[in-house]
Design goal:
This protein has one helix at 7-21, and strands spanning 26-30, 46-51, 64-66, 72-73, 80-81, 84-89, 92-102, 108-109, 114-117, 120-126, 128-129, 143-145, 148-154, 159-161, 165-166, 172-180. The protein is mainly beta and 184 residues long. Strands 1, 2, 3, 4, 6, 7, 9, 10, 12, 13, 14 and 16 form a twelve-stranded mixed β-sheet that branches. The chain has a two-stranded antiparallel ribbon with strand order 5-15. A two-stranded antiparallel sheet has the order 8-11. The longest helix has 15 residues, at 7-21. The protein starts with 6 loop residues before the first helix and ends with a strand.
Amino acid sequence: MSFQFSTAVRNASADAVETTIGTAPTLTIRTGAPPVDCAAADAGTVLATIALPADWSSAASSGVKTLLGTWQDASADATGRASHFRIKQGATAHMQGLCHDAWQGSKAYAVGDQVQNGGSVYRATVAGTSAPSGGPSGTGGSITDGGVTWAWLQATLDMTIDNASLITGQQFNVTAFSITVGGA
């Protein structure tokens, strides 16, 4: 049997993440694969930098914390394809994960593009144009969606952004972010 926790314990654990990281941390959106863990050096090019609000996530409810306030960079730092993020307090990276667009119908996708659809994250393995509706679903390594083939990456949503293809000077927004503590 797996551990199971009360909602109070799950909420306290999720709230402890924000408390430990501290007020007004910095969020960076980067290209390429994330480092192996938070202790490793930064990887990829910084595409966007956001000074998060002093109170940057909601109070946990049912073991889940979500973004609070507006997470926006008025002018992207560089041009490139966003693939991961890091949240730091000073030089210390406390959190990292994948970032991706929400899936869109009838859109051209390139190999390596990552999308969120139905609570799962997928990476394009064959370029093409997505179906008009539906999007990838399931957990396979070869999911057909119109002319695109997707591979399932993970069942949890790390961070959704309004556009993963950034251009220097472009406004950039985080549209969804959550920390979920398991064990319900």
